[in-house]
Each structure stands twice: as C-alpha cells, then as structure tokens.
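Task card 7
Instruction: Convert sequence to structure tokens.
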Amino acid sequence: MLEAILLTVSMAATPLLLAAIGELVVERSGVLNLGVEGMMIMGAVTGFGVALMTGNPFLGALAAIIVGALFSLLFAFLTLTLVTNQVATGLALTLLGLGLSGMIGESFVGQPGVRLPRLDVPFLSELPIVGRLVFSQDMIFYVSVFLTVAVAWFLFYTKAGLTLRSVGDNHNSAHALGIKVVRIRYLAVLFGGACAGLAGAHLSLVYVPQWVENMTAGRGWIALALVVFASWRPLRVLAGAYLFGAVSIGQLHAQALGIGIPSQLLSALPYIATIVVLVLISRNRRLTMVNTPASLGRPFVPDR
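Output:
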C-alpha cells in the first residue's frame, strides 16, 4: 500500500517539477512567463497524438518538447523583440494553448493511449519499496530529477549561470558589461517551454495515458506558484513539487476511503494549499525578496 502511494505521488509530482524548474530558469533571467499552462497542454496533446500515430511514445515526448519550445518562442518574440506586456502575453498564450489543444485533440478523445515504458534497473528494481520507486520509473521521471540537479549546478556553480542571474537581477548593468541580454533571455524562455512541453507529455503518456481536454487542470499555475514557494531555488522546487504531489494524491485516497468531506472540497485541496503557501510567504517580505530577480517582468530595450 505504501509503495503504491509513493509511486502515485512521484507520478503526480513529476509534471509539476518539470514545469516549475523550467519556469525557474525563465524567471531567473528576468522574464515572467504566465503561459506555462498553455505550453503544458500543447505538449500533452502533441505527445499523445504523435505517440498514437507512430506507436512510439519516445517520439511523442520529443514532439512535445519541440512544440513547447515553439510556443515559448512565440512568447519570446512578442515580449523580448516586440516588447509587449509579459503578463498579458503569457495569459494570451495560455488561452491560445487551451483552445488550440481542444481543437487538435478532438479526434483523440476516447482513443487508447501509448504508455511510456518503465526503465527497470536489473536487481535494484526488485528491492522492496525503493526498488520500484527509484529504479523502475519512466524516462521523464529521471529527466526531471536530472534537470533539477543540473539547473542547481548551472545557476550557482558556472559562469554561464552567474551571467544568467546577473541578467535577471539588473539587465541594464549586464548590457553595459557587453552581455547579450535578449539572447540569454531567448534561450532561457526556450528551455522553459521545452520543460513545460515535456511536463505535458508526462500527463498524456504516463500519468493518464490518454487525451482529455484541459487535462492539465491548473497544474501550470501550481508550477508558477512553486517557483515563488521555493524562493527561486531549484532543490526547494523539488521538495515543493513532491509536497504538492502528495496533497493531490492525498485527496484521491481520502475520497477512496469514504471520508465524510465533499469531493469538490477534496479536489480543491491542491489549489487551496497553493493559496495558503503564497499567503504565508508574502507575509515575510524579506524571505520573498532574498532571491527574487530584481528585473523580473521588466521590459528591456537595448540601446540602438
């Protein structure tokens, strides 16, 4: 029973972790992309559709990454080149993704999906509890953990990571030093979009291997909240994603046990938890401002 619960928690946490770690890099560069939900849902429908047509879920995951990156490229062009409002553009991207995915996925509804297989490590996968939890997971699970560690190392132990953080903290000073601010932000936004697309693919290829309209169900917004919850620190994002994953799975088990609480309230628990966490964090202004990129959401126009 414990093993099954832990497995479902890791499955629920993986898309949150991927989307949040991608958005963390985007925000560390000083860009606020509220289109995570739209990129996730496009990744979900693309991953499912390509996997269904080719019979290869790995191609589906790759296609989801590409589509997520392309969607983010649209956002980057509008906000970084045309200097449109980042908040309004991100919201528009989410609405576009939700509408377009519904149209594309109309013929996929009810179709049996192609599940991404588990990667078993010989002998180790047979260990009790930790065997299936750590050594018998799908590829996207391992990618999410690897990216979290890699992003933490990149941001705080490499020159490129320091450069990216400097752009997010003061883009004018970075530009004065000769740093290509717009180029770095383009790359950060593309990385965030690719992560969001892969997060969506996890939903339609692993978590629920089928296509359901609006299947992201607000996970993109939770991922955005996770970045703030983690104070823009990658390893805290990892902890937060699994905490929120546990809350999501906990409400399902509570419904299965017949606990006398309305199912609608239980289903709202992950979002209530998100609001509570953000309120608690906002009360400690010093904690909020410690790692907040100073240029977050501010437009940048290079001198001509």
